[in-house]
Amino acid sequence: MTAPQFARRPSKALLIGLVVSGVLALIVLGLMLRKGGPVGFGLSAVLGLAPLPVLLAAVLSLDRLEPEPKLHLAFAFAWGAGLAIVLGVGLTLAGQALFLRAGYGAQLVNDVGTVFLAPVIEEALKGSALLLLLRRKQEIDGLTDGIVYASMAGLGFAAVENIGYYLIAFGQDGTGAAVRLFVLRGLIDPLGHPIYTSMIGLGVAYALTRRTPARFAAIPLGYLGAVVLHGLWNGAASTQSLAWLGTAYLVIMVALVLLIVVTVVERRQLVSKMGVYLPGYGSTGLVTADDLTMLSTLKARKAARKWARGAGLGRAMSDYQQAATELTVLHLRAERQGMDPGRFETERAALLSSMAHARRW
Predict the structure, then answer these.
(1) Residues with Cβ < 8 Å from 314, sequence gap 6 or more?
(2) 124 CB contacts (<8 Å, ≥6 apart)?
(3) Computed from CA positions of residues 260, 266, 269, 270, in that sequence, does the dihedral angle turn out positive or negative?
């Protein structure tokens, strides 16, 4: 018997977007293989994908308390790797062609494409992954969710883009050039695209989870922040100046620290809110004083899972903690955004049922 769940059917638009983006990503990789040959493409693919497991683990670790649906995360990643890449390259090249027809020199057009067109176009396309998720706005319960979805789109985009860049470097100057570029893009600045697009994720999440009159202004502000960070890095890289690269890198690292602070603060707030909402369910027998103690800190939650594994209740404890967390998030969503009472009661009943099924201690 499985625990009762309040399941939301994936939207058709989401599924279509996932399939189309995935197919486009495969087509792009196939074209790279055809152009670069098995040796060049193989090396480039290894270099491009090598950091990905660590980067994915780092992004998903931000979302441990209330994990997002795997299908939605896969959609965001595929969107970045497929549609965003194809349209980003196509629109940037089209824009550069317009500048060339206007009589501007090739070097200027290349700089405009790198520093201005690429950031403006690519961030709009990566950030647009969140637009389809707006229809599933109940999945974005806080700023961390916006960061996670945006980061997944950025990682998908970066993985395919990096393979392309490594392949170009290999074709021009061999293995050494590809490895040197990998050091810059894969080791020194592997989180560039996720950080840029996370600015948009913050804006979208803020707009969805707040009720302030000007909340939707956060979306264009987030987009502006993403474009500025992206353009700053591209501009610094195009100068080949260590001073400019160092400055741009420092600014991007400051942005990364701020994103981490946001997620840590929000995680602690969510855990503390459990002590506000869950005691009201003491009469149900599903939340005792010991349960509250176990749920009230990250350290206690981890210790409870360790104890449960030793007692053969590891899965049950994880399910219980997850349902209790979702119940707290449900209350927060109703408090911050407002919620239809009927829907609130339906979701709450499903989560309480899941807690009842899981709690066997």
Answers:
(1) 305, 308
(2) 223
(3) negative
Measured between alpha carbons, how far is residue 244 from residues 119, 234, 241 in Å?
A: 18, 10, 5
CA–CA gap between residue 351 and residue 330 (Å, rounded): 9
Tokens of 337: 């955004």
pTM: predicted TM-score of the whole model, two decimal places: 0.90
**How does pLDDT run across 89-138, given as a tens digit for each residue?**
999 999 999 999 999 999 999 999 999 999 999 999 999 998 777 666 56
Nearest Cα to 126, choosing from 175, 86, 96, 180?
A: 86
C-beta of residue 355 within 8 angstroms of C-beta of residue 323: yes
Helix (H, G, I), strand (E, B) or coil at 81: helix
Q: What's the rounded Cα separation, in Å, for the pair 196 and 128?
A: 13
Intra-chain end-to-end CA distance of the chain, in Å: 18
Angstrom CA distances, 88 to 69, 93, 293, 343, 356, stand at 27, 9, 50, 39, 49
CA distance 49 to 150: 19
What's the pLDDT tens digit per position in 28-39?
999 999 999 999
Q: State how far the Cα of 291 lies from the Cα of 210, in Å rounded to an integer.
A: 30
- Report the alpha-carbon distance of residue 205 to residue 216 in Å, rounded: 10
Other CB atoms within a 10 A radius of the CB of residue 58 amount to: 15
- CB count, 10 Å around CB of 62? 19
Q: What is d(CA 143, CA 266) in angstroms, rounded to the nearest whole number?
A: 8
- Do residues 152 and 76 lie in contact, with contact meaning Cβ atoms separated by under 8 Å? yes
Q: Hey, how many other C-beta atoms are within 10 angstroms of the C-beta on 254? A: 11
Torsion, Cα 152 153 158 161, to 10 degrees, reads 150
